[in-house]
Amino acid sequence: DRAGMMVSPKAAQAEGDKFGSKPVCSGPFRLVERVAQDRIVLERYPNYWNKGEIHFDKIVYLPIVDATVRLANLKSGQLDFIERVGTSDIAALKTDSRFKISRITEIGYQGITINVGKSDLAQKNPLGRDPRVREAFELALDRDGIAQVAMDGAADVGNQWVAPTNAFYAKNMPVPKRDVAKAKALLQAAGVSNPSFTLMTPTTSDAQKIAQVVQSMVKEAGFDVKIQSTEFATSLNMADKGDFEAYVLAWSGRADPDGNIFSFDGCKQPLDYAGYCKQEVDDLLNRSRTTLDPSERKKIYAELAAIVLKDRPIVYLFHRHWLWAHTTKLSGLRTIPDGLVRVQGLRMN
Predict the structure, then answer these.
(1) Assuming Cys at both sites, which of 7, 27, 54, 154 could form a disulfide with 87, CB separation 3.0 to 4.6 Å?
(2) pTM for this entry
(3) 109-320 adopts what CATH topology?
(4) What is the spatial distance between Cα 346 and Cα 102, in angstroms, rounded to a whole number?
């Protein structure tokens, strides 16, 4: 996982495909109970190496999909801590002295993946076929507006696989400003003044909002976008088969920039839903993996940005803020960009 979790090889081998329901790992808690879609119960492991930093005997995780229900449970005292706070709830929580909000920018990204070679659909649609059309599409976007509508501003806009605050962000390739006139000119030059394509999107609220505001924005430049709402697992299967033209897709991110680009832009890599393949890019990606000097890696990623951002297999939009809310009785929370909560140091006062 993105946090680098260790498991017991002996237990993993013994349990086989049942290991997920009986995990033996190296953390401060052990699994007591897991009821699918209901709860996960953990209790303190007494032999943990850093047990002095663990201040709970038991932790119960409740999978509550609806953000409104999560918040209601926090306010009623049924929960002490919630993650993925609805962005529209932040203002009200800030005025409630019983709770505290914590946030940090994710290491992942939100973007739109374009089928440029995954299947025959790429050549049947001008968006996948012509880089000028993809440039026009990007120029028709106002990232600040998208982030405001979809996330209530709880995001940092960006145009790369890492956020602008990341050390490996290519500063010579800044976020382009919206330019509808230039977008129209590019479409005219490409001979498709009114291109049409289908934008597949998961059924989550954030993804739906992104699709809708993108549809409205690019219409001003001449694009006719049809939104196809699809259950998430189904959409991934369709993307893997190349059964899409464009796809609203987020990535949770990895600490090293390689985890945000190699599998997505390398030829025939498992997450290359765009079907993007260029030998020059592959060579740079492989060099970035074998170069230890951070300053040299940064130069390599700048070269990659110059190519990939021009080809646009993915149009990056923004980097969400991880949002947590908890009772003020809870202290010691460390915000980590991977969005995973560390229990070390947490205590109830």
Answers:
(1) 154
(2) 0.90
(3) Dipeptide-binding Protein; domain 3 (3.10.105)
(4) 14
What's the CATH number for 9-106+321-348? 3.40.190.10
Question: Where do the structural domains in the chain lie, given as residue ranges?
Answer: 9-106+321-348, 109-320
SS3 156: strand
DSSP line for 301-342: HHHHHHHHHHH-SEEEEEEEEEEEEEETTEE-----TT-PPP
Q: What's the rounded mean pLDDT across residues 28-53?
A: 95
Looking at residue 21, the DSSP 8-state letter turns out to be G
* Burial of 285 (C-beta count, 10 Å sphere; 0-12/13-18/19+): buried
| Sign, Cα dihedral of 157, 163, 164, 170 | negative
Contact 15, 33 (CB under 8 A): no
Tell me: the pLDDT tens digits for 164-174?
999 999 999 99
